[in-house]
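Students often ask why inverse folding is considered easier than folding. One informal answer: many sequences map to the same fold, so there is more than one right answer. In these notes we will look at a single instance of the problem. The structure comes first.
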């Protein structure tokens, strides 16, 4: 998996969708990735313009070819050109597609060799209806490329430049799957010149009720101190790999539910970006990273970059 060199931002005409652009721009670092601004039109019975499953692309510095789009598709093109005009130093590739939004965004991303999609959501109040509603959820299910989901406030809605990212947070659960976020996070941290926070959560032994007795599950009579020591050793081993690559690393062991502890850490570390794989469940902690990712996307405020399990096509 490579650090993004071509980043796609889906836009639906709302200020919320446009608020993802500053975050996408912040991933440039000292490089100049290619940005793609895409808008999807619902299929119609029109015999002119693009048909379902088709798209047209043009550079923001060029004029769109006359007659390619139908009358109902033209407004989307003008909208994208207007957005591009707000970011004069970006020179994005503009794309209008026709079809189901999630399917078309994923198709366009594959066709153009996009390696990251950045999209906004409402977070705590639930995903936005329309492009940013079920589409975000659907993209997370079908995409073979990383999806960065951001929840934006008034500042981001008004922004016309990059949004600051000052650190990364990588939650680990002891599984190989969760650890796949470390190389990606390390490369991204190096590119942006920012530190990485590794966090692992330990859970208290579970009580059970058996007849008239209440106690801990057999084999779990281990002190929290021992659990935390094992977790700290685990984090330190992975931290050494990042340190060897020149990345500054902070390790944090917390007791409690991973979703809550990661959200707390993100609140303590301003302008942080969470990087994690979609799910995994092994080891003493026995928690599913999938449910944690879902909780972070819906209840957290920090932008969250979800890495897929499947290889990018």
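Output (designed amino acids):
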């Amino acid at each position: 998996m490579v650090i993004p060199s071509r980043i796609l931002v889906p836009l639906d005409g709302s200020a919320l969708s446009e608020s993802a652009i500053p975050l996408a721009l912040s991933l440039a670092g000292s490089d100049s990735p290619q940005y793609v601004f895409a808008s999807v039109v619902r299929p119609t019975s029109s015999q002119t313009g693009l048909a379902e499953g088709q798209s047209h692309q043009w550079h923001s510095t060029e004029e769109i070819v006359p007659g390619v789009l139908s009358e109902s598709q033209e407004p989307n093109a003008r909208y994208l050109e207007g957005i591009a005009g707000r970011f004069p130093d970006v020179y994005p590739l503009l794309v209008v597609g026709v079809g189901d939004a999630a399917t078309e965004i994923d198709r366009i991303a594959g066709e153009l060799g996009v390696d990251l999609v950045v999209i906004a959501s409402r977070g705590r109040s639930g995903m936005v209806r329309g492009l940013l509603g079920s589409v975000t959820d659907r993209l997370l299910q079908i995409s073979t490329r990383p999806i960065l989901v951001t929840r934006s406030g008034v500042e981001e809605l008004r922004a016309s430049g990059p949004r600051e990212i000052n650190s990364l947070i990588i939650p680990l659960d002891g599984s190989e799957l969760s650890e796949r976020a470390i190389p990606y996070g390390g490369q991204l941290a190096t590119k942006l010149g920012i530190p990485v926070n590794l966090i692992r959560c330990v859970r208290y032994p579970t009580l059970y009720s058996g007849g008239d007795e209440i106690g801990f599950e057999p084999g779990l009579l281990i002190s929290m101190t021992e659990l935390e020591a094992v977790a700290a050793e685990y984090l330190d081993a992975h931290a050494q790999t990042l340190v060897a690559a020149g990345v500054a690393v902070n390790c944090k062991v917390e007791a409690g539910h991973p979703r809550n502890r990661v959200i707390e850490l993100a609140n303590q570390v301003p302008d942080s970006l969470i990087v994690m794989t979609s799910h995994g469940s092994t080891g003493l902690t026995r928690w599913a990273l999938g449910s944690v990712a879902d909780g972070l996307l819906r209840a957290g405020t920090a932008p969250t970059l979800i890495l897929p399990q499947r290889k990018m096509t």
